[in-house]
Write a structure and sequence with these properties.
Length: about 190
Amino acid sequence: LFKERLETGGQGQDGQFSYYASAWRTDQDGYRAQSKTNSTGFSGKLRYSIDDRSDITTVVSFDRSIQQSPGPLTAAEFAQDPRQANPIFLSNRVQSTVEEFRLGVIYRREDLLGQDELVATGYYIPRHLGPFQQIRVRVPQDFTNRGGNIQYLNKSPLGGYGNRITVGADVQNTPITTGIFNSITG
């Protein structure tokens, strides 16, 4: 197992903005042949205070993961060597790849009408799976998750009693594209 990680963060002198960023890599051999994994990525966050009651935050990240598959073994193959890979999975280099990018923006405002808060969020998350490489078959998939939400929270007393009213709306759209390709017919 090999891991490395780099992180940094800070705040501007006036306290109006702050940031955080990290990058990482992990490599693992696995117990069996044809079972290595590799994961790399980064993430970052930037927050800017517009004034003493509102701020905007941007979040961005990316992950890429590759995982080999050793496949199943028969009882005889397992008795011979439990660490071996299925010969067909090994010769076809069966593996999967996942890549995901995330971008989000969050706007927050306090005390619009008293003891209340407004939060609006938007996000865009494309994700690519593949090609998931099987025995002479590749199965790539693409997802694009995008959307946003808005939420209003009011904590003002009502009739002399404590109160908490939340109103909001969410919108999301996630189209998926899938392809299946084999080495014989295309």
